[in-house]
Amino acid sequence: MGEQHHHERPRANPDAPVQNLVTYVAKQGAQDALLELVKKHEVALRKVGLVTATPFKVWKAFNIRTGEHSIVEFFEWKDGKSSDVAHQTPEVMAVWEPMGPVLEDLRICEVELV
Question: For a pLDDT cut of 90, what percent of the chain falls above it?
Answer without folding.
Answer: 88
